[in-house]
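// run 5 | inverse folding | seed 20
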């Protein structure tokens, strides 16, 4: 019995190690940022579903559309990083310094993380949860700083 437990435990830990190693080799240590965004996607969907149940506005089409939007956000992230990489490589080939373009993917991910978090907070507020004001205002301040930084980089 104890031997069987260790076999299962070893399979689970090996699987987790393989997943984390694969993610790290593909995305680098930053894979945690993508995983965090995925967690926010799930929380946004869950809080949106709870909100619709509380408000008695459940609609399976609206839920399906929400999932499709989340998939499209992931496509947007992929495209922003892919274009950044491609343009950077082309810049090297034609001898134009385009290092700032690598920020496109990171800025896109940052903006989407902020938007997901805002959406979660809005859902919680509509459900009746008392969300601290500093969270709502802090995200707005952070969004403005990001947009200001993008503007500064784009003017260079």
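// decoded
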């Amino acid at each position: 019995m104890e031997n069987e437990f260790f076999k299962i435990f070893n399979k689970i830990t090996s699987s987790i190690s393989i997943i984390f190693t694969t993610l790290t080799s593909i995305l680098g240590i930053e894979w945690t940022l993508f995983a965090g965004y995925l967690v926010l996607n799930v929380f946004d969907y869950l809080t949106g579903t709870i909100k619709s149940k509380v408000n008695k506005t459940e609609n399976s089409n609206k839920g399906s559309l929400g999932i499709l939007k989340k998939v499209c956000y992931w496509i947007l992230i992929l495209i922003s990083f892919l274009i950044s990489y491609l343009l950077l490589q082309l810049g090297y080939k034609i001898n134009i310094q385009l290092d700032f373009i690598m920020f496109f993917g990171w800025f896109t991910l940052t903006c989407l993380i902020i938007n997901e978090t805002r959406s979660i907070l809005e859902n919680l507020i509509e459900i009746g949860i008392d969300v601290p004001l500093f969270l709502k205002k802090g995200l707005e301040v952070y969004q403005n700083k990001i947009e200001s930084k993008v503007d500064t980089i784009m003017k260079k």
